[in-house]
Design a protein that fits this description.
There is one protein chain. This protein is an alpha/beta fold. The chain folds into two domains: 200 residues, Spore Coat Polysaccharide Biosynthesis Protein SpsA, Chain A (Alpha-Beta Complex), CATH 3.90.550.10; 68 residues, no CATH class. The chain is built from seven helices and 13 strands. The strands form three sheets. The protein has an eight-stranded mixed beta sheet. The chain has a three-stranded mixed beta sheet with strand order 6-13-10. The protein has a two-stranded antiparallel ribbon with strand order 11-12. A hairpin with a 7-residue loop joins strand 7 and strand 8. The protein starts with 5 loop residues before the first strand and ends with a helix. 38% of the residues are buried.
Length: 280
């Protein structure tokens, strides 16, 4: 069956449901109008991203999300995952690019029908509290705003009531190659985001300024001039990239990746000391 899942079950485990992290809610976090238990899901396959991306994401969520949550990783290789992460086998007939993430919209994704799922890309950096993701529980779908495309969402960070938008997956699964051909984006990488914008007529956005782009909002880009014979002149790399005040999540889309700028500048991209502080 297309997109069917089975959990990786560790030998010392009674089942994946036993793996979850519980943290007490602080007294300052009101219990009214909040989602009490969240499921957090990410994907990792292939060799571009090492297992440390998932483990660091799990650690960042643990530091910056109050209250109980279960952390899931859908992967083709569960080796090296931190204890407490629930691994799920990526179906053998999975898709390239980011299309795999559309499986989140399956009617009973991971057996979680009706649960609230926070879907995260593994190359994000969380720098402050993300407790805002528990707010507005009446919404079935809420997403980060895509600053590059007005009115669209960014699939690096969204929350979904599992099963509420099953047609997003069902329509895609009926003719995946046709959908990929029409909505593939650049190098088949951003198609899931374009498909979601096409398939979901109306959705809400997370609070303005909480989720930002490293490239667009962190003063990360040095000035660069193209010179003859393929040379480039870069100015301003001595300055440091930093997230704007009020930001909780920094999205790293494309190049550079967090470790590229953690200790030094990377080409035209400035050194970002906040990555070393928070990406751990």
């Amino acid at each position: 069956m297309l997109g069917a899942f089975r959990p990786f079950v560790p030998a010392d485990s009674a089942g994946p449901g036993r793996h979850f992290l519980r943290r007490p809610l602080p007294p300052t976090l009101p219990m009214t109008n909040q989602i009490e238990h969240l499921h957090v899901a990410c994907y990792r396959w292939g060799t571009r991203y090492g297992v440390e991306y998932v483990n660091k994401l799990f650690s960042m969520v643990g530091r910056h999300l109050s209250g109980p949550f279960t952390f899931h990783c859908v992967t083709d290789d569960p080796s090296g995952l931190s204890p407490g992460i629930v691994p799920h086998a990526l179906p053998a007939n999975h898709f390239g690019g980011n299309w795999n993430k559309l499986m989140n919209f399956q009617a009973d994704f991971l057996g979680l029908r009706g649960a609230r799922l926070l879907a995260l890309d593994i190359d994000i950096v969380i720098v402050d509290s993300i407790d805002f993701v528990r707010e507005r529980p009446e919404l079935d779908f809420i997403i980060a705003k895509n600053w590059a495309k007005d009115g669209r969402g960014n699939s690096s960070f969204y929350r979904l009531k599992v099963g509420s938008h099953a047609r997003v997956w069902e329509d895609f699964a009926r003719a995946p190659e046709a959908a990929i051909e029409q909505w593939h984006g650049v190098n088949r990488r951003f198609g899931d985001q374009r498909w979601m914008s096409h398939a979901i007529a109306d959705y809400a956005f997370f609070p303005e300024g909480r989720i930002v782009s490293f490239k667009e909002h962190c003063a990360a880009r040095s000035r660069e001039w193209k010179l003859p014979f393929g040379f480039r002149l870069t100015h301003g790399t001595h300055r440091k990239a930093r997230p704007p005040k009020g930001a909780s999540v920094v999205l790293f889309h494309g190049v550079p990746l967090p470790p590229d700028v953690m200790d030094f500048a990377c080409g035209r991209w400035r050194h970002a000391p906040f990555v070393a502080e928070h990406w751990r």
